Amino acid sequence: MNEEGRPAPGRIAVLGGGSFGTALASIAATKGARVRQWMRDAALADEITARHHNSRYLPDIELHESLRASTCMQWVLEDAELVLIAIPSGHFRTVVRQARPWLKADQVLLSTTKGIEESTFSLMSEILVEETPSRHIGVLSGPNLASELAARHVTATVVASDDGYTRAAAQASLSCDYFRVYASNDRYGAELGGALKNIYAIGVGMAAAMGMGANTKSMLITRALAEMSRFAVNLGASPLTFLGLAGVGDLIVTCSSELSRNYRIGFAVGQGVALEDAVASLGQVAEGVNTVRLVHERAEREGIYMPLASGLYHVLFNGVPPSEMGLSLMRSEHSSDVEFTLSRQDAQRDHHTLSKTNQESRS
Ligand SMILES: NC(=O)C1=CN([C@@H]2O[C@H](COP(=O)(O)OP(=O)(O)OC[C@H]3O[C@@H](n4cnc5c(N)ncnc54)[C@H](O)[C@@H]3O)[C@@H](O)[C@H]2O)C=CC1
Ligand SMILES: O=C(CO)COP(=O)(O)O
């Protein structure tokens, strides 16, 4: 039972047949729920149901035997109490509209997608609010490489929602000995963290390909956190969520692991591979490629200082060599380490005062 007096969801639907949707579907099935997974590929659906494998996205993993997959959206969604949506951001709204006839006000809807919609700059839970009647909307976000989670590596995530029933339902449906689900009431911050960190994983992958070592990586990750927080605060979000699993936690894993698709895109570009070729050979979604463009444009429009994101944007889309990715950061005015203790403006003012004093003493 949870705080609304309802039992934990016993019927769960998962939209998306990729690596993360499949990993979560299998965990929920392991916990005893009836789990149905929707995907477009009929052969893959048959393979999951009959042979308990998803050979395209999680080739070495044995899935729970009770998991059923189908291309029929109605069958998957009928009487589902909790729906997990793991569809790349570029197709998220279309799939939600397809699902809408079977979505109800009392269902829990959780997005696991870490991206931003191109035409509206909406986060995925904002699309769920717009497109569905559900009163229980949340996001699942954290340091969760799908293949590690599916292989039962001890992992933690965050369910973020302002609705207590949504948080409790997600925790009851997914927590197990190797997956711990922490709660947050900052849906927007957790979701923004998940989308923004992909940008910097591309940057760190690129730096690694150029032979940069631990000093560089540590600097990039820490300054990435400063940029992400600055961007979030400008959009009205709290920076505090970035101190948790959905912020710095996810940033660390994505910037550290060769399993990250975004890191791999950056690594390939750093080795001189053209972006289109890197994306084509990945064969899976790397959300950061689109996110860096959207965030750079928004930051330019609103005057938000984001030297790493904009340096990366120019490398990916304007033919600037990867070796110049960090130059605008390295050459910019002296600045503050933690802006919430010493503001950027105050740190820069120290230098203006110093140079004025120098000029006066010379004259
Ligand atoms: N894979 C991971 O480690 C994690 C992924 N995520 C997020 O989950 C989201 C989904 O990612 P993955 O499962 O990893 O993706 P994936 O690249 O493994 O698979 C994407 C899935 O979406 C399907 N798809 C693509 N276009 C579609 C469309 N128009 N209609 C219906 N289905 C479509 C594909 O067929 C595939 O089943 C992404 O936003 C990603 O950032 C979040 C945490 C971890
Ligand atoms: O979000 C992820 C880990 O938390 C997965 O990252 P990639 O999409 O870069 O593989």
TrEMBL record:
It is an enzyme of class 1 (oxidoreductase). Pfam families: NAD_Gly3P_dh_C, NAD_Gly3P_dh_N. InterPro entries: 6-PGluconate_DH-like_C_sf, 6PGD_dom2, G3P_DH_NAD-dep, G3P_DH_NAD-dep_C, G3P_DH_NAD-dep_N, NAD(P)-bd_dom_sf. GO terms for biological process: carbohydrate metabolic process; glycerol-3-phosphate biosynthetic process; glycerol-3-phosphate catabolic process; glycerophospholipid biosynthetic process. Residues 339-363 are annotated as: Disordered. The active site is at 197 (proton acceptor). SUPFAM superfamilies: 6-phosphogluconate dehydrogenase C-terminal domain-like, NAD(P)-binding Rossmann-fold domains. Pathway: Membrane lipid metabolism; glycerophospholipid metabolism. GO terms for cellular component: cytosol. This is Glycerol-3-phosphate dehydrogenase [NAD(P)+]. It comes from Larsenimonas rhizosphaerae. The lineage of its organism: Bacteria, Pseudomonadati, Pseudomonadota, Gammaproteobacteria, Oceanospirillales. The gene is gpsA.
